[in-house]
Design brief:
This protein is α+β, with helices and mostly antiparallel strands. It has four domains: 12-154, 3-Layer(aba) Sandwich (Rossmann fold), CATH 3.40.50.1010; 173-260, OB fold (Dihydrolipoamide Acetyltransferase, E2P), CATH 2.40.50; 303-388, Phosphorylase Kinase, domain 1, CATH 3.30.200.20; 394-611, Transferase(Phosphotransferase), domain 1. It is 29% helix and 20% strand. The strands form five sheets. Strands 12-13-14-15-17-16 form a six-stranded antiparallel β-sheet, with helices on one face. Strands 7-8-9-11-10 form a five-stranded mixed barrel. It has a four-stranded mixed β-sheet with strand order 1-4-5-6. α11 packs antiparallel against α12 (493-508).
Length: 627
């Protein structure tokens, strides 16, 4: 039997809304403090009905929260802290709690002091408007909200709307990361692209990727009600809202009471996600690819000569490939040097001219082993190129079984792998900024000695100006180039984008190829089909396509949601960025992996398995920002 008396302290009545009860841990702390201070509060039956519905919500996190609060309300009723139901009007009007709150304020607010606790801005405004209504004089109502520490703060009346000339300032998120205190509780404008949107409570949350290259996180914009304009992934938006929280460690900004601005000011220019790139020439160089005859091919013990006649002696073999052999050189200086000596079929006039073009570009970046000079044999015949000596193991070696990995790299964690990935991507960005396309991007051509130190080798094979990269691996080749002769055409930025995306996926997924599935097919067929086998949120792969192993599913579950979304958009056949002209730039992957890096401390705190290279189970801590 419900208690039907009105809980009062003198002539005071306190009501609490559903959204405030669900604002844990603040509501739990508030109720505990209320019991300690012997206070009283009323929970309307309409609120209990809403809580009961939430206990069956598809959102696991919301469902569990509602079940816990629903039970605690009855516990506190037994302690005499809570009274469920206000009167018979409450019993007969239980469809919409807001109506019941307004009815209670008008019925009891003239003779009693009523406090309504709610997180709902619209309800708060309605209640405050009722207090200020000229038709009801002397209405006594106060509107409060619960904070995370269990304290109550007063909702202030809505200010008069600003004139059209007083637009909220557009603030760069990277600026907020450095100094946000002066902007808290101010209305600001955020511009960018929608990552995703989803319902939260009575409103909607839109997560946007802001127009700010220096910021790798996201802005969470909370709408009290569903916006009239549809929010779709990839849509350019301009959103104003009150800045309520900035988390510099997590790289997240939160704005409340948001609205979509439909008339952007002249100062706002959406950032172009397609980077400004040096155009790729229309056709391959006309320099003939004719073999250069040599009377002697340098080998161990031979002398080779640079263009300045400086002499080097070959000491030992470092690596042997189909196109060349790489040797260590004896050197008197501090820098370790190597010689790449071309095999007869690849020592050509085109390769010689390509080296001249590379050297003329003056490229230099720590960890990228660009050709340093042209080498000839003792008779002055072109034989290869001089380059820096790169030490370390191949990144491809990291893609091994858990047992082998633990034996060789047992102290590595996921943050180490993410750090190395960012180092790799930073080097690729330098190349792209200078118009160089790697073409054949293979982990075996990236060496490492630690997550902080990686080196790129085989730089003479990349695409420079109108000289193509003649090599190609089936896994890093996009569907539109499968089966083609790579020496006969120049790769586009879109072709390169596919290879970069594959590399990022493999680094994040411990070597798994993005299209490898349980129903194994030939690699080129998997890539052409575009049947990405992983799922996230509402996205499900097509029937019969699923991750190749339980290990792959575990790895995927421990990635941050934003990274998963980008992989789906890059690899699924209907993904927004799966087409050649829409593929992600390396800058976009730096942002996504950088965001994952900023999320990892909190993700690991909620589930320590996330720190492991090989997690032993699917990620347990469900969080909309992460999963």
């Amino acid at each position: 039997m419900f208690n039907t008396h009105i809980p009062m302290s003198g002539n005071n009545i306190t009501l609490i809304d559903t959204c405030s009860l669900l604002a844990v841990p603040g509501s739990e702390i508030y109720l505990r403090n209320l019991r300690t201070s012997r206070g009283h509060i009323t929970v309307l039956r309409a609120v209990m009905d809403e809580l009961r519905k939430k206990t069956r919500d598809p959102d696991v996190e919301l469902r569990n929260k509602a079940m816990k609060i629903f039970s605690e309300v009855y516990d506190y009723e037994a302690f005499g802290v809570v009274t469920i139901g206000l009167d018979e009007d409450d019993r007969n009007n239980r469809n919409f709690a807001d109506n019941v709150f307004l009815g209670a304020v008008f019925k009891y607010g003239l003779k009693n002091n009523i406090t309504v606790i709610t997180q709902d801005k619209k309800l708060a405004e309605d209640l405050l408007n009722a207090r200020n209504s000229q038709s009801v004089n002397g209405l006594k109502v106060k509107v409060m909200r619960i904070e995370e520490d269990g304290s109550l703060t007063e909702f202030m009346p809505k200010p008069e709307p600003a004139s059209r000339t007083d637009e909220p300032p557009v603030i760069l998120p990277s600026r907020l990361m450095k100094d946000f205190t002066q902007y808290i509780n101010r209305t600001l404008t955020f511009t960018g692209k929608v990552i995703r949107s989803y319902p939260e409570g009575r409103g909607v949350v839109a997560e946007i990727l802001p127009d700010d290259e220096a910021f790798s996180g996201r802005v969470r914009c909370k709408f009290t009600e569903s916006p009239t304009q549809e929010l779709e992934r990839g849509q350019d938006v301009r959103i104003s809202g009150v800045l309520v929280n900035v988390d510099p460690d997590f790289g997240e900004i939160e704005a409340a009471d948001c609205a979509i601005q439909t008339a952007p000011s002249a100062q706002y220019q959406p950032r172009q996600f397609a980077p400004r790139r040096i155009p790729v020439p229309a056709r391959v160089t006309q320099v003939a690819d004719e073999k250069i005859r040599r009377t002697q091919i340098p080998e161990v013990g031979s002398r080779v000569f640079a263009r300045d006649k400086k002499e080097y002696t070959i000491s030992r073999i470092i690596a042997r490939g189909r196109r060349s052999i790489v040797y260590a050189l004896e050197s008197d200086g501090p820098e370790k040097l190597a010689a790449k000596i071309y095999a007869p079929d690849y020592c050509t006039t085109r390769q010689l001219e390509k080296l001249r073009v590379i050297l003329s570009m003056g490229l230099k970046y720590e960890g990228i082993c660009f050709p340093l000079d042209i080498l000839t044999n003792a008779k002055g015949e072109f034989s290869g190129c001089l380059m820096s000596f790169a030490e370390g193991e191949s990144v491809e070696d990291l893609f091994c079984t858990e047992k082998v990995f633990d034996e060789k790299y047992g102290n590595w964690t996921k943050p180490d792998m993410v750090k190395m990935t960012l180092n790799v991507l930073t080097k690729i960005k330098y190349l792209h900024d200078n118009g160089v396309l790697m073409g054949n991007i293979l982990p075996e051509n990236i060496l490492f000695t630690s997550p902080d130190k990686v080196s790129f080798i085989n730089a003479d094979s990349w695409q420079y100006k109108d000289f193509p990269c003649p090599e190609g691996d089936v896994y890093s080749t996009p569907p539109e180039l499968q089966g083609k002769d790579f020496s006969t055409f120049l790769r586009s930025w879109g072709n390169e984008g596919f290879a970069v995306s594959v590399l990022v996926f493999r680094l994040m997924m411990q070597g798994y190829q993005p299209y490898a599935s349980y129903e194994r097919e030939l690699p080129e067929e998997e890539i052409r089909a575009g049947k990405f086998p992983y799922s996230v949120g509402e996205f499900k792969p097509i029937k019969d396509y699923k991750a190749p192993s339980m290990e792959a599913r575990r790895l995927w579950s421990h990635l941050v949601r934003q990274l998963k979304d980008s992989f789906i958009q890059a690899f699924h056949e209907e993904g927004e960025h799966s087409r050649e002209d829409r593929r992600y730039s390396v800058g976009q992957w730096i942002r996504d992996v950088g965001y994952y890096d900023s999320c990892l401390p909190k993700m690991i705190n909620s589930d320590p398995e996330t720190s492991k290279i090989f997690p032993s189970d699917i990620r347990k801590a469900l969080d909309k920002r992460h999963n």
